[in-house]
Amino acid sequence: ARSVNLAVIPGDGIGPEVVAEGLKVLHAAVPGDVKFEITEYDLGARRWHRTGETLPDTVLEELRGHDAILLGAIGDPGVPSGVLERGLLLKLRFAFDHHVNLRPARLYPGVTSPIQARLDERGPDYRVDFVVVREGTEGPYVGNGGSLRTGTPHEIATEVSVNTAYGIERVVRDAYRRASARERKKLTLVHKTNVLVHAGGLWYRIFQRVGEEFPDVTTDYLHVDAATIFLTTDPGRFDVIVTDNLFGDIITDLAAAVTGGIGLAASGNLDVSGANPSMFEPVHGSAPDIAGTGKADPTATVLSVALMLEHLELTDAARRIEAAVAADLAERGGQQRSTSQIGDAIAARVAG
Ligand code: IPM
Ligand code: MN
């Protein structure tokens, strides 16, 4: 028997609704001899409104003691922009050294892409199935910068992107490993080396050097602007993409849009070393406009649960969830189902 300590942060808006379905599917998928000990943490906009706290240090330390974290979504329009992003979400990613932000982008059969006509032109065997390895602890996200002559017509704001050889190398090596384990074994570096010569140069050199350890992996480089063109004209050309924190943020929303929308996009914030708990969350936000209506699609959370199980080496359970989601999507069509109906349907397939 094995026991897993899971921290759950349902959060705000649709967060608790999609997390409930994610846990439903989790329980249907894990074998009987694996026991999930779940502790819920009340963090997010509601707590901030009530107490003014984002992430107290005592809570951070409690979270550290878990094997993994499942997060729904945080935020509501009443919280000033940046407070929860920096005080909670990014604080967790930085405190737990989540250097690999893993974001798969797969167009499941039965799901219609907004660029479907274009994809159809490429023939019946054309597949979109890639994964973005987004750096998660550096870049402009570190919050290094400031403002001079604030509020004057001569104000100057800087937002410094921090890129360390250590930080780049570990995420690049992880991306090579993932590429090497996949069928096509192709890795694309996305950056903007023609303009961001300092950071871009470092990324490019490390990408080349680490590549020598992976002679089986085919490599490719794209400037981020060109990458957006390919993502919307020929996304099937990608296998694994590695990129920095900000470019990764932007292109993974685009990748999600192209593969059926944000309702399906899963993510894992990984400390690959295993020293800290990794955190799994749908890419979407708290969608306060549809909270409580049963309209939220829990699929992104369910797929995030599958990523979590894979990370916990419960590979079989992860595969079964992915297969159940694929089967559900293949038959979904235009059906209008509620959040819990979708969760029930996927859980039933997993159990069946
Ligand atoms: C995401 C989000 C976050 C990010 C925000 C909410 C801080 O957009 O997870 O992609 O920029 O990383
Ligand atoms: Mn984002």
TrEMBL record:
Enzyme class: oxidoreductase
Catalytic reaction annotation: (2R,3S)-3-isopropylmalate + NAD(+) = 4-methyl-2-oxopentanoate + CO2 + NADH
Binding site for NAD(+): 285-297
Keywords, ordered alphabetically: Amino-acid biosynthesis, Branched-chain amino acid biosynthesis, Cytoplasm, Leucine biosynthesis, Magnesium, Manganese, Metal-binding, NAD, Oxidoreductase
Residue sites binding Mg(2+) per the record: 225, 249, 253
Site, as annotated: Important for catalysis: 141, 192
Family indicated by similarity: Belongs to the isocitrate and isopropylmalate dehydrogenases family. LeuB type 2 subfamily.
Protein name, per record: 3-isopropylmalate dehydrogenase
Organism of origin: Carbonactinospora thermoautotrophica
